[in-house]
Write a structure and sequence with these properties.
Blueprint lengths: L7 E5 L4 H12 L4 E4 L3 H11 L5 E3 L9 H9 L4 E6 L10 H19 L3 E10 L2 H5 L3 H11 L5 H6 L3 H25 L3 E7 L5 H9 L2 H8 L8 H11 L11 E4 L3 H7 L7
Parallel strand pairs: 1-2, 1-4, 2-3, 4-5, 5-6, 6-7
Helix pairs in contact: 1-11, 3-4, 4-8, 6-8
């Protein structure tokens, strides 16, 4: 095991499609793990399947609870965080707009800031965002989201949170801009932070949204690679970003979407597909 793999890897949303793939990628490296998700039983099953490979602690709970980050810190003990892969999140069909923003962004912000003092030198945070955030990267929205990042109120963001279909990309755009904003603070600690934006991935959540309406099929149709992605294709990029090979990558968004954003652009934009 190399030095960077001796510190703990924390994975939220660990029982989900992307989260469990990330957990298994870290386990292959022999990293000690803290895995978290809403329900305890799926975490227990995942942990049992991995304990022959690496030590695993579980922290079940709601990431949006204010006391949740303290539970992760307590599970660390005196150890340091070598990698945090924050994959916990909800999609438009799973909650109302305010709840989507609270889970996808506010909870991420709270956890990141709680773990920053516990980051190992050369540690990394990978926040799972979405290519929908890049599709919403319009100057007027970015200005509004940056106000929220500064703790100020934004009438535009409040309006967009009324609808889950707009709340979701706004929450993910907030994650992308937050990773940029926090990069200097992580750099001072000798650590890194990035966001990773998947496209449409073949998971339970992805299939749920595909059934909810025609938008996803339209996006797949203009995706240059002509297919949905696999969870392991996200996990492999998380593993790379968490390795010394990515030691000069921080404060940016990594798009892993088979070219969907570029395909939508070539088709004339979101409103034309």
């Amino acid at each position: 095991m190399s030095d960077h793999q001796k510190d703990v890897a924390v994975v939220t949303g660990a029982a989900g499609g992307m989260g469990s793939a990330i957990v298994r990628a870290f386990a292959k490296e022999g990293r000690p793990l803290i895995i978290s998700d809403l329900h305890e039983e799926p975490l227990k099953r995942l942990a049992e399947s991995l304990r022959s490979a690496t030590p695993v602690a579980i922290v079940p709970g709601d990431v949006s609870d204010e006391g949740y980050p303290a539970r992760i810190v307590a599970a660390l003990g005196h150890r340091k965080v070598g990698a945090l892969a924050h994959a916990a999140g909800v999609s438009p069909s799973m909650a109302d707009g305010k709840r989507i923003f609270d889970i996808n962004f506010t909870a991420a912000k709270r956890l990141v800031e709680a773990l920053l003092p516990n980051m190992a030198e050369d540690g990394v945070v990978v926040l799972i965002a979405s290519n929908s955030g890049q599709l919403f990267a319009w100057p007027v929205i970015d200005r509004a989201v940056r106000k929220v990042l500064k703790g100020r109120s934004s009438p535009l963001v409040k309006f967009l949170l009324r609808n889950p279909r707009t709340a979701y990309p706004v929450s993910k755009r907030a994650v992308q801009l937050y990773a940029q904003k926090m990069s200097p603070a992580f750099g001072k600690a000798g650590a890194r932070i990035v966001s990773l934006s998947p496209g449409i991935i073949d998971t339970d959540m992805g299939r749920l949204e595909q059934k909810a309406g025609p938008e996803m099929d339209k996006m797949i149709a203009v995706t240059p690679l002509g297919r949905v992605g696999r969870a392991d294709e996200i996990a492999s990029v998380v593993a790379f970003l968490s390795s010394p090979a990515a030691s000069y990558i921080s404060g940016t968004d990594i798009l892993v979407d088979g070219g969907t954003v570029s395909g939508i652009g070539e088709a004339g934009g979101v409103l034309r597909i």
